[in-house]
Structures are given as structure tokens and as C-alpha cells.
Amino acid sequence: MSNSHKLVILHGNSHPELAKEIAHCLNTTCGDALVSKFANSETQVIINESVRDVDLYIVQPTCNPSVNDYLMELLVMVDGAKRASSHRVTAVVPFFGYARQSKKDKSRAPITCKLVANMMEAAGIDRVITIDLHSSQIQGFFNIPVENVYSEPLFVKYIKKKIKDDFVIISPGVGGVRRAKAISDKLSSELAIIHRPNKEMSLSLSASFSFDIETVLVGDVTNKVAIIIDDIADTCTTLRLAANALIKKGATKVYALVTHGVFSNNAIDIINESPITELVITDSIPNDHNKAKCPKLKIISVASVLAETMRRAHHGESISNIR
Question: Which intervals hold domain Ribose-phosphate pyrophosphokinase N-terminal (predicted)?
């Protein structure tokens, strides 16, 4: 199916390198837009080319170090594009900020992810493309299409190429079982699950390093390579807890494959001090500055997956089999 509307890619300041790589995959270049701040720190957007009647894709992960600034840049860019008569505006948000605030888990808690969804719709976004949403039900927060694509093909390809010994796929918590199982099924491998104590207990365990008594491993990792699969590496305490437990349970090595490398506070130091052999992340968030600090860190690109998703969305093709 052809699309008479020109495909145009713009980006803000959160990850211009990824936007340019996506554009390269699509045999095009990024459009000309200035995204900066006024003297009083308000967001300023100037789109320096016509976007009238185009199919516009704005690549902008709402990630650290300036989640709120990047979100505001996205909203202002969308408003400018809609007022300039763009045919359709798609927000390409590889890392969706506020995705972990998606439920009311205590009294008077906001559901901030829903608020962000409302803001994006109010700005005029027609479609959202993202990778590995923290919770799949977030798609239901929107009244517009949300294409949640997966890093599974990239991770499966990496494991097949890198790991030659017997291995087992590990979910570091019950919430990530579906993600880990999808990869273990494609690799015809065993699956194991780590059950961790609650947050308060985890903090006390972290101080005493007494993991073997409290961490429950469902599955066998003896004399095997353990491969942890997760969606977000933030403080990396979970990864350290899991890696220590797996080594104590007999794993020969521990690898971790995580989609989004957030790395808050001293997360890089925690990874360096952990028994993890290699931590593989995608470039959904810019992390080149952390590679020099962490020799265990390996970054693989999601540009090809996003580019193919955008191409299919542009031409009205199915996206379901990009897995």
C-alpha cells in the first residue's frame, strides 16, 4: 500500500544520534528543527522547514537526565507541527518516561503515566511507537494507536551468537516472566524465576549481603550460564541481588540483557562490583558516556527495529510480526 504523504523525521534533544540512525535506515535524513530554551528556561521550538501534509515522526525518548524537559520538548514540537498542518504526527518514544507510575499502589498516589498519556493526546499526537513498555496495559491509557514493539529479536540474535555453553533464561521477578518466557521459547531453553523479598527486606539484605536465605530460585542453574532478562536497569540493585543468588546457586556465569539502561545514582558502580559478566542494553536511552565507566556494558541498536516499524506504519502494513 502506498502513502502519498511524505515521511519526515524530527527529533528533540534527548537522543539525536538514534534519530539520525533511524533516518539512515530509512534512506533519508532528519528534518530541520531547533529545540532550545528561552532565557527563562521555557522550551522553544522552531521548525525550519515545511511540514504541511506530511507524515511526521518525532523521535524523542523521555529519559534521564531531563525527563520533564524532554517530555515538554515533545509536546511543544507536536503542537507546532499540528498548527503547521501536518497530516499525521507519530511520537516515537523508545523509552516511555513515567511508565512505572501506572497504577495506584497506595493511598493518594497519582497514576502519572495516565496523566502523561492525556497530555500527549491533548497535544495532538496521532500515534505512539515505543519499545518494551513496562506494563502492556499502558496501551489502554490511550485512545490512539500505541505500537509497543519488542527487543526480543535483538536479544535472541545476541544470545545465539554469543552464548555457546548450556544456558538458562532468568526472570528476576514474577512480573517479567512473560518477557523471559518469550525469549526462552524462541531459544528452546529452560526458564527459571527468581522470587525476591519485598522492597524493605531487600534493602536490609543489600546491606548484609545475605541473599541465599531470602532469595528463592525456581529452576536449576547448576553448571549453566544464567541469562537475566529485564526491561529496565535503574538502580541495578535487582540485577546485583539476582546475580549473587545465581552464582551461589551454581551458575558458571551471569549475563544480563535489559532493554532500557536508566542507570540512576551509583548504578554503574554496582554493575562493576557485581558478578555479572556482561550487561547488554539497547540504545533506547543514550549511554555512550557510561561505556568508558563500565567495561561490562554492551550497547546494541534498536534503530533498525524502529525504522521498520515506522516504515510499516507509514505504508499501512502490519506491525504484529516485527518480533
Answer: 7-124
The single residue listed with the C-alpha cell 554503574 is 268
Cα gap 254→247, rounded to integer Å: 7
7-150+304-315 has which fold?
Rossmann fold (3.40.50)
Write down the architecture of domain 152-301 according to CATH: 3-Layer(aba) Sandwich (3.40)
Q: Which amino acid is located at 32 in the chain?
A: D
Grid look-up 522552531 returns: 46
Domain ranges (residues) in the chain: 7-150+304-315, 152-301
Alpha carbon distance 298, 203 (integer Å)? 28
Burial of 262 (C-beta count, 10 Å sphere; 0-12/13-18/19+) = buried
Query: Taking the alpha carbons of 211, 212, 215, 220 in that order, is the dihedral positive or negative?
Result: positive
133/232 Cα distance (integer angstroms)? 10
DSSP single-letter state for residue 223: T
pLDDT digits (tens, 9 = 90+) for 109-147: 999 999 999 999 999 999 999 999 998 889 999 999 999
Determine the Cα–Cα distance for residues 230 and 236; give it in Å rounded to an integer: 11
